[in-house]
Write a structure and sequence with these properties.
2 copies of one chain form a homodimer. With 150 residues, chain A is an alpha+beta fold. Chain A has 2 domains: 7-93, Winged helix-like DNA-binding domain superfamily/Winged helix DNA-binding domain (Arc Repressor Mutant, subunit A, Orthogonal Bundle); 100-148, Dna Ligase, domain 1 (2-Layer Sandwich). Chain A is 43% helix and 21% strand. Chain A has 7 helices and 5 strands, in the order ααααββββααβα. Chain A has helices at residues 7-24, 30-41, 48-55, 64-76, 116-119, 125-130, 145-148, and strands at 80-83, 91-94, 100-104, 110-113, 131-144. Chain A has a 3-stranded mixed β-sheet with strand order 4-3-5. Chain A has a two-stranded antiparallel ribbon with strand order 1-2. The longest helix of chain A has 18 residues, at 7-24. Chain A is globular, with a radius of gyration of 17 Å. The two termini of chain A are 26 Å apart. The mean pLDDT of chain A is 92. The A-B interface holds A 82, 84-86, 102, 104-105, 111, 113-115, 117-118, 121, 123-124, 126-127, 129-148 and B 82, 84-86, 102, 104-105, 111, 113-115, 117-118, 121, 123-124, 126-127, 129-148. The first copy, chain A, binds a DNA duplex (25 and 25 nucleotides) through residues 25-32, 47-49, 61-66, 68-70, 72-73, 88-90.
Chain lengths: 150, 150
DNA sequence: TTGACTGCAAACGATTTGCAATTGC
DNA sequence: GCAATTGCAAATCGTTTGCAGTCAA
C-alpha cells in the first residue's frame, strides 16, 4: 500500500530503498528510484502503464518496458508487490505491513485495509498439510460507494 | 471447486445447470453442457486452454474461442468462477460453497480449502464504509509439499 | 572499464472480436 | 424461421524479449 508520508519519512524510505538495492546487488538507477518513489507517493495501486504515464513528466525518456522490467526486478527482491485483479492488468504497490484488498468490480479500484484479527489467526490444519504458506491475503470484491452513487 | 461426484449427483448438477441456463435465457448447447460437465468432473482448476484440450476428444470441432466465450457467459450468470492467479492465465471453477485458495508459487497449482471460521466472521467496519461487499476470499501463496520435495 | 541497465522495436501469449455459417427453441 | 451461438481468422492488449548503446560502480 502507499500513503502520503512526510518529506522526512519519504527520504528515509528512499534511503532504505537504496540500501536494499545495494545489498541485493542492484544498481541504483534514476529510473528505479523514480519508479519506487512514485509507488511510495501514490495512494492508489497503479498498473505499469499508469505508472509509466505518471513518470513521463519527470523522466521524459523512460520506456514502458523499463517500467515493466523494473517492477519485475523489484518484485523478485521483495521490494514491490504485484496485485492480481480480475481484470487483465496487474497492479503494483510497495511491500508493507500485512494488509488486504477491497476491489470494486465496477471501477476496478483497489483499496487497502488492515485486519489484524485475521493476520494473527491460526491457519487451518489443511494449510500445514499442503505445504509452506508464505503469504495470506483477503480479497473482497464488491461495489464501492462512489460507483453505486453514480 | 470441483470434486468427483457420483453419477447421480452429476446428473443432478447437470439438470440444475440446464434449468439455470433456461432461466437465464441461455441456449443449452452441446458445447456449453460439455464445458460445464468438465468443470464439474475435473478436480483441478483448468485454464481455458487446458479445458479446450480436454474437451477435444468429446467435441473434436470445439474452438478455443467458444471455450472463452462460454466461460465468460457462464461467469456473468454466476455459474462459473474465474480465479485470478499470479501467472497470466486465468483459471476456472464451478461456483460452489464458500472456499479459499492455496496457490503454489512454483507449480501454480490451486488447492481449495474450507475455513468456515473465516466465512462467518464479521467484516471490519471499513468494508461497510467502502461499499457493498459481494465476495470474500482468502488467497494464500506458498510452496506445496510435492514441489518442495523435488 | 565492464557488466548491469536502458530504450527501441519487434515478438509473444492470452484473450477478444467481426463475420458468415449453424443450431436451439 | 429467427435470434443466439458457433468456428474461423484476424485483431487486440498487456507483457516480454533481443539487441545495441548507455551508465552506475
Amino acid at each position: 500500500m502507499a500513503t502520503p508520508y512526510s518529506r522526512e519519512q519519504l527520504e528515509q524510505f528512499m534511503e532504505q530503498f537504496v540500501t536494499a538495492c545495494r545489498n541485493a546487488g542492484l544498481k541504483v538507477t534514476h529510473q528505479r528510484t523514480e519508479i519506487y518513489r512514485q509507488l511510495l507517493v501514490i495512494t492508489d495501486h497503479p498498473s505499469a502503464e499508469t505508472l509509466h504515464k505518471r513518470l513521463l513528466p519527470a523522466l521524459p525518456s523512460i520506456s514502458l518496458d523499463t517500467v515493466y522490467r523494473t517492477l519485475a526486478t523489484l518484485e523478485q527482491h521483495g521490494l514491490v508487490t504485484k496485485i492480481q485483479t480480475a481484470e487483465s492488468q496487474a497492479r503494483f504497490e510497495v511491500a508493507h505491513q500485512p494488509h488486504h484488498h477491497l476491489i470494486c468490480s465496477r471501477c476496478k479500484g483497489v483499496m487497502d485495509f488492515y485486519w489484524p484479527a485475521i493476520d494473527s489467526v491460526d491457519l487451518p490444519a489443511i494449510a500445514g498439510q499442503w505445504g509452506q504458506v508464505d503469504s495470506k491475503t483477503i480479497v473482497m470484491y464488491g461495489i464501492c460507494n462512489s460507483c453505486s452513487n453514480s
